[in-house]
Amino acid sequence: MFPSKSVSWFSVVLLLLLPLSSSALTFVNAGAYTAPKTAAVGQTVGFTLVPQSPEAVSNVTFTFQVRPYSADGTISPSAVFTHRVTGQSFTAGEKRQYKVAFTIPASLTTGEYVWTTRATNAAGTAVYMSIARVASNFTFHADAAPARRYVRGVNLMDLGNAGGVLPGVMGTNYPKPTLAGLQRLKARGLDVVRVPFLWERIQPVLNGALNTTYQNYLLDTLEDANQAGLGVIVDMHNYGRYTSGGVQRPFGAPGAPTKAQYADAWRRIATAIRSSPSAYASVHAFDLMNEPFGLPYDEGTYASPVTFASFESGVEGWAPRSAANTAVARVARNGQGSLRITTQATSGSGLVLGAGVSASTKRAERAQGATFQAKVFVPTTTPGSVRVRLVMVDGAYTYQLGEPFAVTKGVDTRVYFKPPETAWSNNKSFSVEFIVDGSDGSAPLVFFIDHVAQGTQSGQRTPQQVWEDYSQAAVTALRELGETKLLMVEGYEYASAEQWPKNHPTKWVSDPLDNIMYHAHFYFDRSGEYEVSHAALLASAKSAGHATVGQMGIARMKNFTDWVEAQGTRGFIGELGWPNTVRRPTEGAAWNADGEELLSFLDSVGMGVTMWTTGTWEKASNPSVNINTLYQIEPSFLPLSQAEVFERHLGKP
Question: Exposed/middle/buried for 458, CB within 10 Å: 0-12, 13-18, 19+?
């Protein structure tokens, strides 16, 4: 205990005479009203407040906000309008009237809104007044844009598991969702599940009948989802390719499915689902293809070629991109000269290798042809996946990069590039670059350039356009079948939200029902593997001018959401995820804060999301559980660390 002390009357009087600290000061609401009580787009709603200060105070900040509120009186933490008045001073007992006006924007959602007020000191550390209550003198109704409706849910991997094992065995290579698992998801407030399936499992032979066993697994899942009250996004999870005879072939490649065969598959699948009213009732959308990527370039016609490099007599002045670990040599391949590029065994992704020629040795002249063609070959012994692009360095030493072409190892690949008109004048060099991802370092990286030419090209289709053509074929087939359900069309290059405008400058699907939703995917690390730490990504975000990884994510996501708005269409995020604490025990709070920022942004633009991921075999006790898993659903339900954030941002169907 503290020792007792006598207190003089002088001390008491002195304390009474001292002004109260700012934290003890409380303003009085001497009057408030809102008018009009209903307003349409373009009209103004006024708010008047009369605060009274019981004592002298200076440098007060008033923050007036408009926020939506729900039928149960819950006021949203997000404001649609904010107005601040700073540097206000009051004498003791002074009343002052403040008037604030809010004009209803066309983007505002129709609904109920409330004015809130907060008065603080300049630093915001002391609160003098805080008014946030649903009462008639603070509220109004806005007749604005119709409420944006969107669904939220999760991917349910089961039937799409073990895509490299075909056809696979249910219970050994992949599970089937249970009714109980689906009911557990519905109980958390989810609207939909995205259910991947594999084309080869449901249609083992192109243009052939469906496999009834696997078809019934899919129908059972849809029927159970319907019983559970969940909608289903039916997802062909094939990446724009099909495997037959042990060979995987991307759309547009020799022996790959034609547009007609792809359309046939969707006609058969939709017909099978329609045969079960319960299964069909659960369908929220048909997702026509998951993450198409690496499709070949449709060359069209290449005319009047003029040789730029043939390597018949030597390396012709070509030098490796990096002499430290790469060597070039002229060799004979298939009876003709070829430039062999050999880089020592190296592991990693994003490796950029190759060779080029300086303009001081040979300068490319546009008069010889505006479009380059290079024939290249990558042996199967070269580890990793490989893309190739052509590059010109212009007169200002700017690198003009051609589109990367996917390479099928063991097969000759032709690559094209038409440099910009401005790049030709006084250009400095021309090169061929090989981009390697996923090399395990088990063998040297070997590439061949057989021939480079210049010519004219017509009728070509980029890989993005190849996918656009295929997706249109599926849409047309389903509509001709009489199918009216929502059709989701993903974008090229893994449906990347960030790269969407580059891959698809404009919307492309023609649908007589105008019931299309463009479908993108997003991960903060771009891959969803999260092989780097949160700290590393945060450093990257800050170097790009973003305060948080979440803000960086919003900036990237806006490439897609802004495109959707500009094109006057609809969008959806079919995959979104960040690490759980099973895999990243110390990073949960940081990642959840980023997820909160991104989901809040998607709320503000009214866009649906299915999170990646959950599944019957995804167990929280497994230290190797998918890093993005947010729910364990079997044998009992367990939410993982991301679930608390996601469940604060459920759908508005």
Answer: exposed
How far is Cα 47 from Cα 30, in angstroms, rounded to an integer?
14
What pLDDT was estimated at residue 521? 98
Residue 208: DSSP 8-state? S
d(CA 60, CA 11): 30
Place of tokens 């669904």: 151
- Rounded to 5 degrees, what angle do the CA atoms 173, 165, 271 make? 85
Name the residue among 529, 382, 380, 378 with its Cα closest to residue 441: 382
What is residue 92's DSSP assignment?
T
- What are the backbone angles phi and psi of residue 353, rounded to the nearest 5°? -130, 175
* CA atoms within 13 Å, Cβ hemisphere of 151: 20
What number of other Cβ atoms are within 10 A of residue 528's Cβ?
A: 20
- pLDDT recorded at residue 144: 79
For the chain (length 653 residues), average pLDDT per consecutive 10? 35 34 76 94 95 95 96 91 96 96 90 96 93 96 84 98 96 98 98 98 98 98 98 98 96 96 98 98 98 91 96 97 95 96 95 97 96 98 96 97 91 95 96 96 97 96 96 98 98 97 97 98 97 96 97 98 96 98 97 97 95 97 96 97 98 93
Say if residues 522 and 585 touch (Cβ distance below 8 Å). Answer: no
141: β partners: 38, 112
Report the amino acid identity of residue 580: N
**By the 8 A CB rule, do 420 and 265 touch?**
no
* Tokens encoding 472: 């249109």
Report how far residue 158's alpha carbon sits from residue 171's, in angstroms, rounded to the nearest whole number. Answer: 10
- Which is nearest to 508 in space by CA: 477, 537, 471? 471
C-alpha dist (Å) from residue 286 to 235, 236, 629:
6, 8, 23
For residues 194 and 222, what is the distance between their CA atoms, to the nearest angstrom? 11
Residue that the structure tokens 């440098």 belong to: 59
Distances (CA, A) of 287 to 368, 486, 487, 558: 45, 9, 6, 22
Q: Which two tokens stand for residue 443?
A: 């063998």
Q: CA-based angle 145:46:146, to the nearest 5?
A: 10
CB–CB of 350/438 below 8 Å?
Answer: no
| Helix segments in 434-569, DSSP class H | 463-481, 500-503, 534-543, 549-567
Which pLDDT score is estimated for 20?
A: 39
d(CA 249, CA 269): 21
- Say which residue the tokens 């990646």 belong to: 612
Give, in order, the Cα–Cα distances in Å from 538 to each of 534, 535, 547, 557, 575. 6, 5, 8, 17, 21
Asked if 69 contacts 133 with a C-beta cutoff of 8 angstroms, the reply is no
What is the distance between the alpha carbons of residues 309 and 317, in angstroms, rounded to a whole number?
A: 10
487 closest CA partner among 512, 456, 463: 512
**Residue 267 neighbours by CB under 8 Å, 6+ apart:** 477, 478, 481
The H or E element that residue 271 is part of is helix 259-274
